[in-house]
Amino acid sequence: MTHRPVDGPARAVRPHPAEPLWTRPPAPDQVDPAVLGALLHRHGWQRRGGARGRYGRWTPPGPGGSGTSLLVPESRAYPDSDDLLGEALVALSRSALPAARDVLVGLVVPSDEIHWWRDVPTGPLGAAPWDVEDHLRTAARGLLLAGALATRARAGYFGARHRGPAAASLEHVLVGAAPGGRSLTAVVPVSPGRPLAVRLHQALYAAREATDYRRATGGMDAFDAAVEAGVSHELVEALVSLVRGSEGARIAVDWAPAAPAPEGCATDAEPVEFSPGDLPALREAAARYLREEPSVPVRLTGAVVRLRRSGPRGEGQVRLRVIAGAEVPQVRMTLDEEAYRIVGHAHLVGLPVRVHGRLESQGGFRRLVNASAVTPVQVDDAERDRLMKSLQETAEITAFFEEACGGDGQ
Q1: Do 73 and 201 reside in the same domain of the chain?
Q2: CATH number of the domain residue 55 falls in
Q3: Do residue 213 and residue 184 come from a single domain?
Q4: Burial bucket for residue 21 (CB in 10 Å: 0-12, 13-18, 19+)
């Protein structure tokens, strides 16, 4: 079995949970009129009259919706509320306007929204360079990934730790860009995505405060404390990418109208802004996090995927696929002759090994140093067969058998 590297090309986007349903409007008795009104307002619809306290007349944004309007009751106290809601929902489902689809998605799957705006220099007629949108998407994904990492642990630098599960948690996020590449919106379903939105919201405010403190006092203490709020090397690097080459950037989180705002988070929080003047402080923080994150003591269990040494005797290099004990997919380590022999025998009979050591932060927590107490781990026959089959499907096993038969491992 092969796995796409986390930093490799992006896979096809999984459909949003509401994707198969948005053309079928929910039943009127399942819709809160206040939530529908809030979603219409959020997605650019304009209220243009109506009887105050009873219903409002809403028209969509842009010139294409000038002939369309919806009558939406303000509450269920209005006698004909179900009839008006039913007509409005049918009209939304039949509309080709993106603003209609966005409202229905928000009704079917309550979602928080994360917005990015990036102010970039423009050319003639307001045109922007072709790569502006790609730059914004890359920076936004970096911030989402940093938020997902922070929901799993607190660290100044994650490296490879938790990266696979964090990246997988983003598959339910739906992202859409506005024309021109200067803004982007991520739709994050409240279930299961609310923790990601909350952590990113808190981390951005903590990063803003730490940056202000650094610029005002010259001290970096606030960045150390901000780790507990979710600030990390990964988040700061994404902020640097977002701001670099722009005249400034803003990020805002809008909570789903159908769900209460999270505890400790303002219902209508102002966007968090960063400017080019913040870049020196952010770069210094990124380097500090990378430099000072300590190595981690571990006792991990892994299956051997590669063995290599320069001769028939002496120490050698080993790569393990981690099964348990560490939050990384693979580790590399250097073993003395005896430990290398133990690992080689375990590999030949299809057994994983257990080893003590420290995951070194340099290199992204992919290297185990001071490895000791290497022992094979007994597993049942079915698990052993599964491990052997998995390993035999890789080309790397060839290198091991060449060495075991007297090759030089090169």
Answers
A1: no
A2: 3.30.920
A3: yes
A4: middle
pLDDT in tens, 13-25: 444 555 544 456 7
Q: How many CB atoms lie within 10 A of CB 220?
A: 14
Over its C-alpha atoms, the chain yields an Rg (Å, rounded) of: 27
Domain boundary residue among 292, 313, 347?
292
CA 109 to chain centre: 19
Whether the per-residue pLDDT at 372 is higher than 70: the answer is yes
Instruction: Record the tokens describing residue 132, joined without a space.
Output: 């502006």
pLDDT tens profile 279-298 = 999 999 999 999 999 999 99
What do you get for the CA distance between the two ends of the chain, in Å?
A: 25
User: 197: part of which helix (H) or strand (E)?
Assistant: helix 190-217
Q: How many CB atoms lie within 10 A of CB 231?
A: 31
Q: Which two tokens mark 310?
A: 């320069």
Give the type of residue at 225: A
Q: Which residue has the tokens 């009209």?
A: 91
Same domain, 320 and 343: yes
Q: Mind giving me the DSSP string for 286-299?
A: HHHHHHHPPPEEEE
**Non-local CB neighbours of 163 within 8 Å, separated by 6+ positions:** 6, 145, 149, 328
- Concatenate the DSSP letters of all residues of 246-288 into one string: SSEEEEEEE--TTSPPPTTS-TTPPPEEE-GGGHHHHHHHHHH
Residue 223 burial (CB < 10 Å; 0-12/13-18/19+)?
A: buried
Q: Are 185 and 114 in contact (CB under 8 A)?
A: yes
What is the Cα–Cα distance from 283 to 80, expressed in whole angstroms?
58
**Structural domains in the chain (count):** 3
Domain range holding 196?
Answer: 111-292
How far apart are the C-alpha atoms of 355 and 358, rounded to whole Å? 10
Average pLDDT score over the chain = 85
Residues 312 and 248 grouped into a single domain: no
243 CB burial (10 A radius; 0-12, 13-18, 19+): buried
DSSP 27: P
Long-range contacts of 89-98 (CB under 8 A, 24+ apart): 89/25, 89/26, 89/28, 89/31, 90/25, 92/25, 93/22, 93/23, 93/24, 93/25, 95/60, 95/65, 95/68, 97/60, 97/62, 97/64, 97/65, 97/68
CB 147 within 8 A of CB 203: yes
Element (H, E) at 320: strand 316-324
